[in-house]
Amino acid sequence: MKYAFLILFFFLIYSPIFSQQEDTTKTYDEINDLLEDVTQDNEDTQIYDSIEYLMANPILLNTASVNDLLRIPLMDIQTARAIIRHRNLKGGIYKPEDLSNIEGVSQDEINRILPFLNLGDEKEISFFEALSTQFKDVKFNYRFRTQNDLQLRKGFANEKYQGSKAKIYSRLKINSTNKVYAGILTEKDAGEKSLTDFTSFHLRIEDLSIFKTVILGDYIYEFGQGLALWSPYSFSKGTDAVNIISKRGSNAVPYTSADENQFFRGAALKLNLNRFTISPFFSSNKKDASIDSVTNKINSLLIDGYHRTDSEISKKNRVTEKVLGTSIDYNFDPNIRIGLLYYHASYDREFSSSGLFKKSGDSFDFLSASYSSIFDRIYLSGEISYNMSSVASIHNANISVDKNFSLVFSLRNFPRNFISLHASSFGEKGIAQNEVGFYSGIRFRTDFGVFNIYYDQFKFPIASSTYNFSSSGNDIMIYYTNKIFTNTELRLKFKNETKDFVESIGTERGLVKRSQQNYRAELYYKVAKNLQLRTRIEYVYLTSTKIEPKESGYLVLQDIKYIPIQNLNIYARYIFFSTDSYNSRIYQFENDVIGVMTNPALYGEGMRWYVLARYSTKFGFNISLKYSELYKPNERTLGSGDSEIQGNLDNRINFQIDFNF
Q1: φ and ψ at 191, to 5 degrees?
Q2: How far apart are CA 248 and CA 79, in angstroms?
Q3: Which residues make beta-bridge pairs with 180?
C-alpha cells in the first residue's frame, strides 16, 4: 500500500500542471444519492455497473422516444414527455444549455439525467466503415482495484483459506468508433489463490450487416418486468415512491460485473425489421453447485462465488447450464410496445429438490408476454409469464396528473409453483414466487416541500419449509424533502413494516406479528463552495406479538465533503450506533471507490468511520483511496465462522486506479 500513497502524493504535488477538466465526481455523488435506500446489500457492484453502462452508452436524445428516456434511472413520464416536447419545439437539442427552461423540469433534474444523454446527431456509419478507420478512434478504460482487511480472519489464521488476504479486481474496456466494444475482467476474492479465479469477457458490435447488435461472450438479458428473465440485480422499495416500480430493460447487454454465477456466456443478437425487434440468444455456462454425493443430483446452485477452502473449491463449476431462446418486440408506435419471450434451459444434472418451492428435473421452459404503453399522462406496463405449470403476472399503472402530482399502482400475483431460474421481479422477496401483493404510491410537490408516500400490502399464501404457515404483511413509507434555505435541505423519513415471522414461543415455534418503525431526520447543508455537510439521526423501534422485550436502536451520522484543491474530493463520515440486536439493525449507504456500493448493517453498540479521497487529472488518470473502520468496544470477536476476527476492531483499505487513454 505504500506505493498507493506515493502515487497519490505524486499527483498532488504536480497538480498545478494539470489544466482544468470537467469534474465527473458530482455525477457519481448523484448516483450514490439515487441508489440510497433502493438496495440493502452489504457490498455490491452490479447495480452500479448497470448505471455505469448507461453512462458509457448514453441515449441519443434527438432520436429518442419517451420509452427510450424512461430507461434512465428514476426518470418519470412527466419529465420524459416534457423533454421530448421541448426537443420537438426547438428542432433538436445539441448542447446542455438547450435543456434549460423546460416547463415542469427543474435544473437539478436536468443535471441528474445529463450523464445518460447524448446530445449529438446520429451518424449512419456501418461496422465495416468503422473498421476501415482502424485504430484512429480507439478508447481504452482500465480499472484496477484492491481491497485489504487489516485484521486477520479465522480462515487465514487456521490456514483454511489458500490464498492471500487481498481482494483484487482488474477490468479493461475498449471502444472503437462507438461501433466495436470489448472488455475483459478478472477478480479474486480475499482468500482465493488465483488472480484469475473469475474471468469475464465480452465483444459487442453495432450495425454489423443486418444485425443492430451482436454480443459474443458474457452478457445479461432483461425482458419485461423480470418475471421470467432479468439481470441478477433489482431495485427494492425506496424513497422514490413512484418511479422505482416499472422495469425498463434493454434485452441483451454486455456483462461487466464480478458476480460469478448469474450471467449468460455465449452469443446474443438484435435484429431490427421495421417495427419488429428480434433478439435471439444462446448460452452455455458452468455454475457452482452443491452436489448430492449419493444421487449425484444438484442440491442447490451457489451464487457467492467464493473458492477459498477445499470445500468451496470442490463446488466450483460443477454444473453446466445451457439456455436457448429469443424475444420479439413489436412497436405499434413510439408509445406502444409489446414483447414475447421464449427460452429453454437445461442442466447436465437433475435437481434433487422435490418440495413445493423447489426445482426438480433438468429441463425448464418459459413463455412470457410483456407490454408498455403511454396514453397521454398514463404509463402502463406489465408482464404475464408461464413456466409450463403456472402463470405469474404483474401489472403497473403510473399516472402523472400534472407536474406536481403523480401516483402509481402495481398488482402482482406469483403462484407457489411458479419456479423461475432467472427472475428478479418487483415484490417483497424479488423471486416471483408464492406472493400476492398490491402497491400504491404517490408523489406530490407543494410550496413547502416534496412528499413521497407508498403503501404495500403482501401475502405469502402457501406454507413453506421456512414458514409452516401462510403469512402476510404490509409496508408504509413517508419521505419528505424541503429546501428550507438556498443551501440547506431537510429530509425526513418514516417507515413502518409489519410482517409475520416464525419464532420460538416457550417450547414451541409459532407465527408472530413483528412490526418495525424507522424514523430518520437528515440535514444537508452547503457551508461553502468547497465544503458540504450532512447530519443524520435515525431511530428504530421493534415490537413483536407474544415476544418480549421490545427492541430499539439509534444511529447518529455526520458527513463531510471537502474539496481542498481542484479535482481532489475528500469524503469523511463518523457514526455512533447502538441497537439491541441484529433484528434492530440500521443500514447506512456510504461512499466508496467508484463502482462499489457499500450499505452495511450496523447493530450492537459501536462506532464506524471512514475517509475517502478521489483525485482526477486531465490525463484521464483517477485515483480513489478509502480507509474504513468499525469498532465495537463491548465485543470480543467480530464476524462468524471463517470470517471471524479476534478482537473488536475491523478495518479495511480500498484502493482503485481508473485510467482512460
Answers
A1: 95, -15
A2: 16
A3: 176, 205
